[in-house]
Queue: 3 jobs
Job 1
Amino acid sequence: MHKRSTAVMAFVLMIVLIGASLLWGAYRGWSTERKQVETSMGTLEDVLSARREVGANILTVARRHLPAGDPLLLSVQEALNGIAQTGSLSQRARANQTLQEGMDGLLAELRQLPSLTADERDSMYVNQLLPQAMEQSAHLTEQAEYNLQAERFNRDFNNSFSGRLARLLGVRPAEQFIPQEGDAP
Amino acid sequence: MRRLTGLLSLLMVIVLLAAPALAEPAASPIRDGAAVLQPTTLADARTLADRVWAATGLRLAVDVRHFLGGADAAAYAQRLLGQQDNSQDTVLLLAVVGEETYAVASGTGAERILGRDARDTLLSRHFRPAFQARDYDAAVADFLLGTARQMQASTGAEIELDGLFGRTQAQPLPQPSTWAPASPAPTGAAHKKIVLPNLNDILGDPISPTRDPARAREQAERQDRGLSWGSIIVIGFVLSAVFGSKKDRRGCGCGPLGWILGVFGLSKFFGWRR
């Protein structure tokens, strides 16, 4: 009898210890991984900075041919400010999306202007150089190290048993640079 | 002794062969990131920079770009100057074609020979008119020639200017009134295809290229395998010690290997190990 109760206690203790070690391991492992994802945020800031500079270059050319109060010009300026602000990542992603739409619209508007068509240099900028720069900066933003790491982290975190355990202990998924519905830049 | 001599000779041969590869070519101080200058202008500018350096010990540098991404031209010129070899004795001209701005920065040593007033006069008389007329070759040529002549006058050194930029030594620089305002290109002019080789060429703050995302993903997945083999073995032994065969033969009958394999199976099932 005595041996049996000791065995039961040992068994219960073992289960408790295994459970605790699983919980602790899950928490420590996933929170460490999340920190690693956050340390790569610098790569996203770099590419967003490049994106702002490309936008500034487009505005430089646009201001030579459009009035200061042109709505598209103001919209792009506002979107540039939205990316630079320290809002949530999803808000900045929304601003980035608005910036892309604004820059596309602004370049399309510029192409219609006779003053631009008559200017060989600015025409080259609007038809070739700046669209290439926009495309390259957009691609760099999508492929930024932070985005890839956050996506991978969230996929593994949500699909693993240990991830579910870590979630119970307060570890949250990484915020992705994706616009959410209802976010204002 | 013979072996030592042989080794030393081999070492000398290796060093002599490797020296050209080891010696890093100095970055040219004349840089046309916007590809608006003619090759002859670039060649003559480099020749002139070499002659000025040989005669006076001062360096001429030129950097032409399309855009600076909103950065201030004067501050950017100072930054570029700081990156030059021997920046104290360097005069750097920054021309930003797409933003229609320009700036000059010079080190303290260069300013003793070419003062700020003289520099500003050179810019306004011999650079700006051609720059605004979009004749970038003439703008750079006139500025460099004017600067070289000013340095010649200040230091008394002889600088050979004949034949550079298609001009003779005695030929005066064009006067500002010579330049017509920028005229638009004829309509319907065909644009040659311009390729942007590097996004950093039109940014004020260059960015590091991102790694190939597919490789980065593979590398991260390789590093992250979850529960290690060591952990599985330890857990297996622990479980074996608790539940394994006992003196009275009432254990489960499994040895440590069985428990290790069991833990491995569980880790795969629950995704603790990928």
Note: Confidence is low (pLDDT under 50) at residues 18-25, 181-191, 210-215 of chain B.
Job 2
Amino acid sequence: MSIAPPEKQSKAAAVEVPLYVPVEDAPHAPTPSHKGIMRWLTTVDHKLIGVMYLWFAAFSAVAGGALAGGIRAQLTFPEGITISGTVYRVMSPELYNQFIGMHASFMIFFAIIPAFAGFGNYLVPIMIGARDMAFPKMNAFAFWILIPAAIMMMLSFLWGSTGAGWTGYPPLSSRAYSPLAGVDMWIFGVHLAGISSIMGALNFIVTISNMRAPGMKWFKMPLFCWASLVTSWLQLVATPVLAGVMTMLLTDRMMDTGFFNPAKGGDPLLYQHIFWFYSHPAVYIMILPGFGMVSQIMAAFAGKPLFGYKGMVYATAFIGIIGFLVWGHHMFTAGMEPWLRAYFSFMTMVIAVPTGVKIFSWLATLWGGSIRFTVAMMYALGFLGLFTIGGISGVFLANVPFDVQVHDTYFVVAHIHYVLFGGSIMTILGGLYFWFPKMSGRYLDEKLGKVIFWLIFTGMNITFMPMHWLGIAGMARRIYTYREEFHSLNQLISFGYLFMLAGGILLFGNLFYTLIAKKRTAPNDPWGTNDVQKTFEFMTTSPPPPHNFDRVPKVA
Amino acid sequence: MNKKDIRALVVIWIVGTLMAFLTAALVYAAYPGGSLPEGSAPTAETATTSWINAPASPVADSVRVNFAWTIAVIFPFLYAPIMTLIYCIFRFSREKNPNADQFHEHVPLEVAWTILPALILVAMAVPAYQVLVLMEKRPTNPDVVLDITGHQFFWSYNFPKYDVSVTDDGTGRSPVLLPVDKDVLLKGTASQVNHAWFVPAFGVKFDVLPGRTTTSWVRPNSQGLFKGQCAELCGALHAYMWIHVKVVPEKEFYAWLKEKGATFPPDEAARISQLLGEEVEVTAAPAPGDTLALAAK
């Protein structure tokens, strides 16, 4: 097939050979056929598509965060503000239900999943030594279909949006109890986002399976590529199931079918099973790429290789497979058979084992290392602590008697935000700071970055730690108001939001300022970490040329 | 890394385990459970009761105990990794440790940290499973059967044996009553959308769905007014679907039923009349050809 690299090759030679020669000297350097905005609209270059995914995710996160601000505003003044006898409510209960549903839908489908698609798109082809993804045009389509998806979802607010949460359980989400078109538009938004997911997944699987550079065997691939591969398999297998259940809900609403309507012989419980069959793997889709990024970042800034690479690969694959078998733990109070509850509880505990292996392996990577506290590393370290907390509350939720007490309470809200914010978002921010110089040639401000980190880290804990207690005390979730004794903790939680808001504003400000005002100064290896890392993206220029490398890199 | 670091690591894990057991002991001591003392019955104004601060059934109390045990076995994996992380941050910075060790695997260690957590999860799972069995053991011969129906946005209750229906108006002034120390079978359904009946002090939460009957059970062992709420998003006023259950002595329970116009089955009527000190209305025997009523018995 291709020429295998010589076995005994000195390390120095593998790193020193430049992989990029100036454009004028390169014999077949392509020139882009468009400039300016047309270049972005017509590109099939995985790097530009990756950057567009990241911008899309960033703006969606702003929208999701604004919705969260609305939720916190309502929960700070649950019965409104009374000024000279008149009660001014923050929002109506109907609008509040829409806010909570859309906050989750936006963060899941338009912020976190596209952010990882963006990093994957940008980095995976380069890391495996390919020039682009296997299907560049489908790659572009997978991104662009997210635009109408997001527009559909946002516009749904004009027609009552979804008052049934991002989970959309019927009968509440059926035509009878959500008569306006908002739910239909929400369903279409989810469908289009799902198409994006499936196409992206296909692309990643084919690219990683077929286009690795000579010598890059499976167990020489960077861990981020493994994470992207397993995530893609999850997306490919699970997302069509989501499409199925959404379609059934849509036909129930529009064509009077009876899948979930008891009066027609259907069953609302069926929806929950099919929905969660997708939505549990979805949470692994939303964390596994982050695990991969953190592995790269930690090894780089600890100055030593990742501990237990093979164990990490197996753990990632195991989490992916078992992730399909635990969906019932979202439904412990739904009325399942007793033996089924015991089974799902058992499997959920099983999946805690490989997750623990990963946490120990990261700690062992840090142990004995020579840690540089760049902003990217601080996010990786923060992730490790916060995700441990989220993982532990998850183990508690696997305990059925305890879960029955705290299901649909703020304990669950605490758990999901520790793993999605303390987990996924922290990895995304770490990845941003780590690979930003590679993508743009410029460094984000490290000093300001540390301020932003502490604002976000502190705010996150002030907001989500008290929620564990609120859930145990019995405060249900998705509620517009609550018992008086929960008031002071809710005010504290809203105070924490302000820290995160400040951090987010500073981050966006620095992002725009850096891209507009700073010059490109980053070398091939912006952090000086590739003597340990040895990943290909740090062997080419910052940013890489359109064709990534002139010569396909040699695997060390 | 050197011998001092290895020693520090061992100390961290021992201390983490001890801290976990200490946390569990503190939680267990702070929330001792047991029946509410006479006269301290919660009113509508006092703090929310839950399975941890005022368990009012054997299931709730078992959950409380199991929670403390779970903290003891699981929290080592919360404290020790975080302490290890903090140790690494201070000890293995580039300034303190300029030459990083280059080890990147250790198979015996990796095997150990796969198997040991699995065994500890078993230690958590076995007692949890026992509480689950208790939760699933619905009384085969319940003293009281309570039918619960969730509506948008209130709860209605029916005692089929006594033909009494009440509705909770959400204010706490019209609670449903249950007798203390009696097995109550709860049968739930919904009229329109999904709801969930959740009374934290009883350790009870179960979804109610239209077109299905789901069940749970409770044996309230403390007297008082216990609050709960709907725990499944059901529409705009989901937050206002309050639940109020008042647990009272048997006599008060039957007096309340009588006041609501109950008819009592013949086999119970005599005993209840004696308890209340007055005659009670007996459920009329079904007519000889009334197959429906006969089937309902």
Note: The longest strand of chain B covers residues 144-151.
Job 3
Amino acid sequence: MDVRTAVTSHEVTLDIGAEFARLPFGRFPEDGPNNGQRFREEFLIPMFEKCERLVVILDNARGMGSSFLDEAFGVFAKKCGLTLAEFKRRIEIISRRDPSLSESIEQYVLDHTSASIN
Amino acid sequence: MKLLKRLSEEQRRRNQRRLRRRQKNAARRKERRDHYRKYGYKPAKHKVRIIRTQAPIRLDLEAEDTVTRRQTIDFLRRLQTIPNIHKKHALFVDLANCEFVGLSAALVLTAELEIAQMRNPGMVTGRDPIDPEAASVFDIVQFHRHLKYVTIPEDQMAKPSENLVVKLQSGGLQDSPGTRLPEAAAAISEVLRNCPDIDDVEANMDRIHQALNEGLLNVLQHAYPDEGSRSLRHALDPKEKRWWAIGIVDMVENKLTLFVYDRGVGISSTLRPNLRERLAGYVGKDRDMRAIKAAIDYGRTSRSEGDGGKGLPQMLDLISHFPGSFIIVESGHGLYVVDNSSGENEVSVGTSEDPLPGTLLYWELRLDGREDGGD
């Protein structure tokens, strides 16, 4: 069985702006309905568990600050026990409008995974 | 005997007339009270007095001389306390003698008068500055439109200069903040669309949107804790838990000015317990200044255990994308400034003798990428 074929056939795309909210905001439910915790628990984790590779598109959502991204991706990596390398292997972040967002997400993942190791 | 009986009847009729008159007057008083309660007026047992408060000649929170700043803060604090003490009196705010008004002072003044109006509806009036330049600052912050002092049609209202594009947003934390706040941040960041010559407008708009989101999220999470505040003299009405944000693009000067203001407890009251312990030896002005520095440097707040606190650093990072810019974080006595004028982020901290009521974030972003002395 060709591994490469197996991986690409299990690739799923998640467009935050189209499928979750155009204006994500905050960390927790008390911050508002489109918070990072809800995105992580209702979208990110379920879709991650069903595929080999998850492509997350950020371009159609606006104003995703550090609070949302940290809670969505950083805490996700900690809860799933992923290292940064595993995160990058399993998840591809597409942010053409602002490429620095994908770097920020990697930093949040690193913060949480290195904190959990320590 | 007959005479006594007649007198008694007359007396009886007189008493009945007196009783009917009393009942009629009581019904009229009740109707007036119900009317006043419905429209927010309180029936005054005495004549309504007018409390006049005069603004200083210069209203400037960024003034370098302490006298001007003190006079500005004193004036703003009077506006906080007068409507609370004299609930049955009208407040007259006299701005006629103002010769200079800073933008941040105008925004804070707008906020204070909005709260004064909420406490005593219809009881707050005043006089505009005579100086046209001072008056124009109030047009920029949409003072009259925001406080509904305008009685002329929208199309006949004085507009700020054509070189300026202004977006003012405000709201209360009771009004669906989870949706209202990001929408307000999006609306303000849109002012940058008026500058098409900027490189990467979409990405920069998004960065501004993110920074504003973090500033407003801090207001939602920290500014008005439920358990009350040591810095407010009275229990805060939920309606008074409000925020104000404004974005002003100056297309001639090529700069974008952003403010986020709240009348909350201040940064030093909302640090994590472990950070509060580190600041235990400091009091007053020093404590407020060190609290802002701790919140930024240590990147942790009291709200989330183990996570969080990245918002303030992200707000500061915004100026890295706009060389020649600065940000000021002012809370209580404390002041934290990051200045990118020389191309590098230079941090300075300080204290003020006169504490600002609340927390103010103030960005000035250069849109042409020009640093000091550069082209």
Note: Chain B has a mean pLDDT of 82.
